[in-house]
Every structure is written in C-alpha cells, then in structure tokens.
Fold:
Amino acid sequence: MRLSGDLDGSITFIDEKFEDIIMRIDTLQQAVKWQLCRYAIDKTIFFLEDYSAVHLRKEERHMRRYGYPLYLSHKERHDRFAAQMLDLREELLKIRSSGSGGSYELSVRTIQAAVDWLNEHVRQDDCKLADFLRNSRTGAAQES
Ligand SMILES: [Fe+2]
Structure:
C-alpha cells in the first residue's frame, strides 16, 4: 500500500502518520499470517489509540487555527475512529481477562478498521485538509 492522491509530502505531519499506519498494518498482517497476532495486537491497538489521542487532535488544532470549513464533519470522523479504537481496546481486555490468548478475529477487525480509515479518511478527508493547509500557509503546517 502506498501513499497516493494529494498527500505529496509537503504536509509532513499527516504524511508521516500515513506511513506509520501502513507499517503497523503490515506488521499485524504478518503476525496473523504466522499465527502470532496475539503478541502483536496490543502494540497495534496502543499505536492507533495514541494516534487518535495525539495526531488527530493535532490535525484538529490546525483545522481550527486556519479556519478549515469542513472542521466539524472531519472532527466527527476522528471522534468515531477514536471510539472504534476504544471498543477494540475493550474487546482486547475482555479476551485477556477470559484467559484466552487468541485474538485472531480482533486482529483481523483491527486491520480492517485501519485499512478502512486509510482509504475512507486519510486518502480523502486528510488529502482535502492537506490541500487546504498547503494553500493557507505553505510550509508552516510542517511544524511538529
Ligand atoms: Fe483527519
């Protein structure tokens, strides 16, 4: 899976996270393939929760700062994704508390959620945001 569309690297903080998510998906897919997903699922879900708590809030700060006109709908999608990640975390805790190490189904659901997020949000909504930020303030949105 490669970056496509309008994320061309000039809005660094969005592009870097795109690549991070792809790497995490690849890692978890490999773990599923080798039946080791119970060892990898924690790190993946933790990463996606952290991404929700840190990166998505950073996007939202940029949207507010530059008066992004699609802020509310974009933020609503962020909130839904964050809630979805919380559900996955709770599901993982249930699996762990039942004494089961198996989390194949949860791993597949996590992979699907991340792939859907990339295709439905990052490649569409974030590309629009990157365009807006580029036009609003070329280069300034690259700050970390
Ligand atoms: Fe976003």
